[in-house]
What we know:
Blueprint: H1 2-20, H2 30-45, E1 52-53, E2 56-57, H3 64-75, H4 80-106, H5 109-120, H6 123-128, H7 135-154, H8 160-177, H9 180-197, H10 205-229, H11 231-247, H12 267-273, H13 276-279, H14 286-305, H15 318-338, H16 343-372, H17 379-402, H18 405-431, E3 453-456, H19 463-469, E4 473-476, E5 490-494, H20 498-501, H21 504-507, E6 510-519, E7 536-544
Parallel strand pairs: 3-4, 3-5
Antiparallel strand pairs: 1-2, 5-7, 6-7
Amino acid sequence: MQKNYIHYLFILIVCWFAFFVNNGSVYEDIMESRNLVTAHEMIEYDNWLVPTMNGELRLEKPPLPTWVAAGIEYLQPDNISLQRAAAGIMATLMAFFLYFFASALSGNRLLGLLSALVLATSFNVIMAGRVATWDIYCHSFMLGAIFFFYRGIKNVRTSWANFIWAGVFLGLSFLGKGPVAFYALLLPFLISYAWVYRPSLKGKGWPILIMLLLFIVISFWWPLYLYVFHRDTALFVLAKESTAWIERNVRPWYYYWLFFAESGIWALFLLTGLCWPWLRKKVRMRKEYTFAVLWTVVTLVLLSLFPEKKTRYLLPLLIPAAMVVAHYIVYIFMAAKEKTLTTSDRVVFRVNAFIPALIALGMPVAVYLLFYREGEVGLTLLIIVSILFLLAAYSIFAGGVRMKSMKVFTGVVLLLILVETLLMSRVANMFNNTEIKSIKAVRQIEELQHVPFYYPADEELRIELVYEAGRRILPWDVKSDTTLLNSLPIVLVSGKPAMEVLPAAMQEKVNLRLIDVYDNNNRPKTDKKRYSPKFVRYVTILEKK
């Protein structure tokens, strides 16, 4: 039991560095802004059951993660680090669920520990656990459902508690992001587990029925509420989302051919672990290893068959992929201990180890060129950082030479921790716009506190501006709608000066007073591809003459 607590501590430490340290170093992106605007309006307008985003209904996404964000917003307004920490907690929970599942499946807690740590340090998972977006919620809850369902069907006795928990987590996953995790995580698991283990469900009928009933009650009460009280809008959104799944971001079936890159520094280890014909007779836990490989491959196939594709959709694939990597590392560890390694084992493992060792070896040079020469870090910090990276490089290189897989694993994890702790915020600052002049400043202007904001209806308003302004900015047909002139003052947020936007006849009736010109571009003007005039806005107050 004491060893289990040590494992828990290791997972917590790695997750702390992976998801929480420097999690506020980058600006909010469009997805975060949409989610947090919706959460803010839940509190501002008390619309917890019928969410809105900038005054328009937002029913496309189930509300559970938004409720969490709204609760955080209520307790700590405008705290982006805390909002992202909620996603970090879900990512940490996912790592623990994988630890418990892999340990129970294999009877090997070392495999469970390595699986959890590989998952927590995979690139796509790190990104999902450091931003206030909702994908991490549904997949984390679904992995919990899979763990409890597995325990329920493996238990010789009728285990009601496990099936009840499985039903609860299935419902929470659906409330997190609808059917996404059911298709991308649960279905591949069920196919792979049934193929490899041929499980018997004899005597489990009633518990499974209770699990499904709990899932239905938790999942569908909110859609049912919308159908009863907002039927037309709910049906419209359902049709729109169904169409979007097959018409939006459509990519060819081979779009995910670089799927292994989403695991980051574990990419080569993953490719090696997926060489099933080569490894299947070498590993000790053959059935568990085959299951992990099949789960990974089935997930990739199902995601590839789906028309809409984005790299962040590969997040669930990294769960079984982490188990594949762990199986490979455990195999090298056991074979080296028993002196049964072959020449091919040694060559392949050393190639896997030496690449991250070279990366760690090159980090001091990168720090010198990118930060020390630019005056971003001092000599003392450069020396300390260099020593730490050289220690990580030595651990990985020495482990590769001596075929010590645990030493290589420790060095790789240390390398990632060093990057996230020492370099993450500095790397972010290299791309951030240091001259940003955010529209967030309007929150501090007293005379604008109770004045409604509008933008020209024929312009595109980025939701990031709504988030930064901290209020609704509603569309206004400036060419034909004069009714707003009866309720002056109002604020106009426009892409051009108000004099160029408002008709001459309207300008004769109002006084125009420019508050300021704001530039919310996260990237500097030198970044021609990403700098956009859509984030430059003139804020003008219209007053009665």
